[in-house]
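[READ THE FOLD]
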Amino acid sequence: MNIKSTLALFASILLLAGCGKSDNSAASAPAAAVAPTAPTILTVEITANDSMKFNLNRIEAKAGQEIKIILTNIGTMPKAAMGHNLVVLQKGTDQKAFSDAAVAAVATDYIPASMSDKILAHTKLLGAKQSDEITFKLPAEAGEYPFLCSFPAHYLVGMKGVIVAQ
């Protein structure tokens, strides 16, 4: 064996011996605290059109989750003839009764004050090419939370949907 081979073998032995060494100083150090993560906000974009339809009629979320809904009226008709909003109602609300009450609420853009306790959140009434957004927290109770457009007759022709909270 020459001197280079001997030195290489000796260096390899030292390296291998060092790899097995245990360092207990890391084991005795306190664990790092983990910061809680912020809950995720569910963001949903919904469009409304001159055919009195939302582009979607079902949203799935977690009970108690925060939701941001962005409503855009992609229609071209004037607000007085084809305004749209999105009203999220409490679970179990009679949607037809809400829609009927909304017809008379012209002064408040078809949001009936008499049924304000049934509303979780609502956008403003939008004209053509306008957008609005709402952010709200779903109740902690699982179930179905309906949403609808309260402009006269829009609910009746199918401008409605549901948020399913699990």
Summary: The chain has one domain: 42-165. Residues 6 and 144 are 78 Å apart (CA to CA). Confidence is low (pLDDT under 50) at residues 6-17, 19-29.
